[in-house]
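Recall the central idea of this unit: under ordinary conditions, the amino acid sequence of a chain determines the structure it adopts. In this exercise we apply that idea directly, starting from the sequence alone.
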Amino acid sequence: MRQVLVRRRLLVLGCVSAVLAAGCGVLPGGTERHTVTVWLMKDSASQEFLRRFTEDFERTHDDIRLDIQIQQWTGIVDKVQNALKADPDNAPDVIEVGNTQVPQYVEGGRLTDLTLESLRDWDMDKWLPGLADPGRWGTQQYGVPWYAANRVVIYRKDLFEKAGITSPPKTRERWLADTEKLNSGGNQGIYLAGQDWYTLSGFIWDEGGDLAEESGGLWKGTMDSPAALRGMDYYRQLQALGEGPVGADEEHPPQSGVFAQGRVAQIVAVPGLAQAIVEKNPELKDKLGFFPVPGRTADRPCAVFTGGSDLIVPRNTDQRYRAVAVVAALTGAKWDTDLARTMSYVPNKTTLASAVAGEEGAAAMAAGAAHGRATPSTPQWTAVEADNPIKEYMSKVLGDADPVAEARRASQRITEALDPNVA
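Accordingly, the structure predicted from this sequence is:
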């Protein structure tokens, strides 16, 4: 999980490194300002964005002073868990968390239930599902979607043109055919590492399957379902049209470096990776394009793993209503679209996608995010990723092992990780 969060930060254009404001006091008119402490993660928003937001928010909320404190991703889970148990004087009032981290913090009843505000004021039915679903526990909404980022296809426009491909594919069937054309003349049609399980997840979801499912309060791995097996079969066909290592993921070696060598037509990655590619090979600057991962049919892109952040309000805050006001402002249309444009993110609602329509990479992300998903919403999912059986399963299948037998084995290991009592 942490690996996804780190890779996602490749999108970021600026860095925040300072606490913007602190303390409380009394304005000349006699209004007392109450400090609301906000923990935001490093590189989630630029310093300039936070300066604009703080000035506007404090101008329109004369009883609140913002104390925005920047946190590091390393070690953040333990730090947040400790903060949720602290006394109000030593705890933040609003915390940014990775969307898939929310289930870890819900346990123990230490988050504020924001269901009423979400239904009444925030149009939660328009939120991106990949952000909203992990922030929900049962029927209660605890995490409020802030911004999203997800994978698209980064491609070489010149190689597409040379192969006679006049427009990006919109179906997975056409994508295979086009990639086969590109896989010639010493070029790889696509560089797809054998253990890129986030990309595989999208194909599984697109087929109607899932990595694990919950029934009666118990979770069970479902990599051996017919839908999941179809997703893996498609991954196998696509991966074969390149030279991606069967036994490694997209970071070993970093796929940006492989792409920069100039003999790869496509990779699946967040758009921000294009910047790293161009830094390694400036000759590719005007040759890169982006399109959504194609879906089963042309009318909608493939489901994709949606990374991003939600905002939570700890139950131990003594500034609940003011904290909610901060969440409402940061996730509202004005500042959410401002953040998306500033940082090349996807806004938190499908209805705000037009805010990034002018930027090819972000627009491709937004199209995919509308059908995005997240990992199973259970605190135990971290145990699955700690010793990820999906990666091993993928490598074995790509090495010609029996897909059904390996899928059953992977499903059993996922089930055991989600509920050790079944072992």
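Residues 1-29 have pLDDT under 50 and may be disordered.
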